[in-house]
Amino acid sequence: MSEVIVITSGKGGVGKTTTTANVGTGLAKLDKKVVLIDTDIGLRNLDVVMGLENRIVYNLVDVVEGNCRYKQALIKDKRYPNLFLLPSAQTRDKTSVSPEQMKKLVDELKNEFDYILLDCPAGIEQGFKNAIAAADRALVVTTPEVSAIRDADRIIGLLEANEIKKINLIVNRIRMDMVKRGDMMSIDDVVEILAIDLIGAVPDDENIVVSTNQGEPLVGDTTLPGKAYLNICKRIMGEEVPFLDLSNDGFFKKLSRMFKKSNN
Amino acid sequence: MKEHVIIKGNRYGIVLVLDPDVPFEDLLIEIGVRFDDSSKYFNSNTQSAITFEGRDLSSEEIDRILDLIKKRTTLRIPYVIDNNKDTEEHFHRIIEAGGNYPSSQEGAEDETHFIYPEKNDGLFYKGTLRSGQTLESSGSLVMIGDVNPGATVMSNGNIIILGSLKGTAIAGAAGNKHAFVLALSMTPMQVQISDIIGRAPDKPKKRFGSKPMEAQIAFVENDNIYIEPVSKSVLNDINI
């Protein structure tokens, strides 16, 4: 049975597209049939982050308007044959698609795929409404910043009002050194305010910038964010995975701790 | 023979004094007899009020007596005067307090609980108010849950939040300056009581990390909003 997950946040730039790319790729790595749908019409970038921008022929609006069949628009991923992308249009805008059309399309896709991930645009208007129309479940992405949390709170309220009951939180770009200094909210602080279940925390990492620029999601590799994203995928599939210790101690800190221990 | 029924009266009203110890059926027979005897006084189609003394009667018993009188005489009885002292006091108090907010603590001599239907529509709500949501109540409001920043809780009465107030609270919205806002953790964006608005002073944002919850109450004094920790003395000063 297919699960339709919308990845949303309210605030822009917190990591929805990056999360969609990595979670989608991670689920494909775990042998699931996955399709990613970019619902940000007019400002598409899921294709760029996946590295598939030069393979686009048809897009979401073409499918919805009946110019092509959805199979013609789906793009197979470079690395995983069970992962597909349905890109958005770059030259139209959000009013080109309605929630009903989204629902119809997703219903068709449900027959073929285990997971359908919808990358939601920022904001709360038509783009958001289109994206949540067909979703069973939501992943709310936020960074540990006051403004992002305010928007995430609003989004959660709207999701609950639209009867999406399964809502999980991803805290992105957390910097444990700042948390220790008291300059940034901890993961627990964020969870306390938003009052939904945490499904994963991803640390801020240079490797992410590199991976999105190269168009190669880093999920499943040996970096900390890579591991974090893979753990999120496993938790989505129902596995219980302990949360990673994200404090990335430098070499000297580890050394000084060793000395302290030996002195006792 | 002792008389179990005595009829007293004048042109406008009858008092039926009834023996409390005699079974009701016997009494009924005797009432019939009495009225027959005095029929010449009661046979001119007069309207007369009636009241009963000496014995508590159920509505059914009163009905049967009135039926009897109707059959045996040409008396018309438009109403029965209820001389029950308790009922009288009860109604009296309700009418007295009708114009103000209930202050049943003052001057209540007995244990009766007064219910004021129009004013007692208090709201009890459980759940977290998220940014952009508003909860309104015309009566006082008790909430179990948080009010997140960007959310508003509004009431014509008082507001008690068993959780964190981080958003906006408006109490006494219809103009009651005695309203208060109480929260287990009071870090509101704004507090408004009646038409007076207060906000936290500008100071550097606190470092993150949770503080232990300390219940605080916001109220108006000298047209300013004061926020103080909840203590016995503060609670005693609250005027509902």
Explain this structure to me?
The complex is a heterodimer of chains A (264) and B (240). Chain A has helices spanning 16-29, 46-50, 60-65, 70-73, 99-109, 126-133, 146-161, 176-181, 187-194, 206-214, 224-236, 251-263; strands spanning 3-8, 34-38, 75-76, 83-86, 115-119, 137-142, 166-174, 197-203. With 264 residues, chain A is of the alpha/beta class. Chain A has one domain (3-263): Rossmann fold, CATH 3.40.50. In chain A, helix 1 (16-29) crosses helix 11 and helix 5 packs parallel to helix 6. Chain A is globular, with a radius of gyration of 19 Å. Chain B has 2 domains: 5-81, Transcription Regulator spoIIAA (2-Layer Sandwich), CATH 3.30.750; 123-237, Pectate Lyase C-like (3 Solenoid), CATH 2.160.20.70. In chain B, the strands form 3 sheets. Chain B has a 6-stranded mixed sheet with strand order 5-7-9-11-14-15, with no helix packed on it. A 5-stranded mixed sheet of chain B has the order 6-8-10-12-13, with no helix packed on it. The chains are: A alpha/beta (264), B alpha/beta (240). The interface between A and B is medium-sized, with 19 and 14 residues.
Shape of chain B: rod-shaped
What is the overall shape of chain A? Answer: globular
Strand order of the largest sheet of chain A: 3-4-2-5-1-6-7-8
How many separate domains make up the residues of chain A?
A: 1
CATH superfamily of chain A: P-loop containing nucleotide triphosphate hydrolases
Q: Would you identify the CATH architecture of the largest domain in chain B?
A: 3 Solenoid
Could you tell me the strand content of chain B as a percent range? 25-35%
Structural class of chain B: alpha/beta
Residue windows where pLDDT falls under 50 for at least 5 positions of chain B: 99-118
The percent of residues in helical segments of chain B reads 10-25%
How many β strands of chain A by DSSP?
Answer: 8
